[in-house]
Specification:
Low-confidence stretches: 77-119
Radius of gyration: 22 Å
CATH class of the largest domain: Mainly Beta
CATH architecture of the largest domain: Sandwich
Structural class: alpha+beta
Strand content: 25-35%
Helix content: 25-40%
Number of strands: 19
Distance between the termini: 42 Å
């Protein structure tokens, strides 16, 4: 019985973290509030877990967007009969946009030069600095929101459009042009689209792809000369993503599994908020370093493997470090003038 109770408490804590992310995301509608209230009153452990997580933020004086409900009143309220019947809807919502009108996209590996392109294509480069987010309108009318400390190189030709995401993160809203495919080169991955919306991040030896609208296919071809030819792309083995799904492609490895996006809407960082759903501490720190001039270093790989679900303003890095220290066995070492080091607690070596 104790083991069962322990599993229930752990599940309630995980769900509380997810709901805290949703309720403080700044995108809460009436349906989301109803589902949250139904989950909250479905079990006593839900209230306990949510109170504890909410209090952690308050203890750290961490400023969050209003949740859109009076949480103190809601946490004390007894469930109405209607809400008791809504327990089946209590699962945190899935951010998934409609597929209507979405175009097909293909992710493949490509070299920096496409065989068969016409001579003298036009090229441009765009770069952002630490903590800078920039919206760029490309010559074909496509919009790119370039994240902090990121770089893209755009090349346009009569029969193809190509973007190389050399570093950082970008959200793409591609202008539809069936006669001229749109490619995004990311490390060893290529995104091919006609017109769609998706987010791509190149960090810590991984490529993350999340789709807001449309359909995306992901592959890691074995033979470069064959797959760089447009006509041969259809034969490459692929993973298929639809709107509301994500995938991670590790360097020198096959693409991972396609996963549903439970909480973090693709491109949410464009508003200045960084959100993470079961992300590694290494990934979070890599992003923090694109917004924080005093660089952050994780002292050991095992600390980097710790997982977290959280959301915060990109300007509140110091408070985020305090939060990481509070919820994980991590000590934030700020002694060095040029960096912050995350160590095991009580490890000052």
């Amino acid at each position: 019985m104790m083991a069962t109770d322990g599993r229930i408490e752990e599940r309630s804590k995980a769900q509380a973290r997810e709901w805290h992310l949703v309720m403080h995301s700044g995108e809460v509608d009436e349906t989301t509030r109803d589902r949250f209230e139904a989950w909250l009153h479905a079990d006593r452990s839900h209230k306990r877990a949510y109170r504890a997580y909410e209090q952690l933020y308050r203890d750290l004086d961490y400023a969050m967007p209003r949740a859109g409900v009076d949480l103190n009143t809601l946490l004390a309220r007894r469930p109405a009969p209607l809400l008791a019947r809504l327990h089946g809807l209590a699962k945190p919502p899935v951010w998934a946009a409609s597929l209507a009108g979405g175009a097909v996209a293909v992710l493949l590996f490509v070299a920096l030069i496409f065989p068969g392109l016409t001579p003298a294509p036009s090229s441009s480069a765009y770069t952002t600095e630490i903590a800078e987010i920039s919206e760029i309108t490309l010559e074909d009318g496509s919009l790119v929101t370039l994240g902090a400390k990121s770089r893209i190189e755009a090349t346009f030709a009569p029969d193809a459009r190509r973007i190389n995401l050399a570093a950082g993160e970008a959200f793409f809203e591609v202008a539809e042009d069936p006669a001229r495919p749109f490619y995004v080169v990311v490390d060893h991955t290529l995104v091919r689209v006609v017109g769609t919306k998706f987010d791509v991040k190149n960090t810590t030896g991984k490529v993350h792809v999340a789709v807001l609208e449309g359909v995306v296919e992901v592959t890691r071809p074995e033979t470069m000369p064959k797959t760089v030819k447009i006509g041969d792309m259809r034969d490459a083995p692929k993973q298929v993503l639809t709107a509301g799904e994500r995938i991670t492609v590790k360097r020198r490895a096959e693409p991972g599994l396609v996963e549903p996006i439970e909480q973090v809407r693709p491109g949410a960082w464009r508003s200045g908020r960084l959100s993470y759903e079961d992300a590694s501490l290494a990934e979070i720190v890599a992003d923090l370093n694109r917004y924080h001039r005093r660089q952050i270093r994780v002292a050991s790989p095992d600390l980097g493997n710790l997982r977290a679900t959280m959301t915060f303003n990109a300007t509140d890095i110091e408070q985020v470090l305090d939060m990481v220290e509070a919820i994980h066995p991590v000590e934030v070492d700020r002694r060095a003038p040029d960096e912050v080091v995350l160590r095991h607690k009580h490890d000052r070596s």
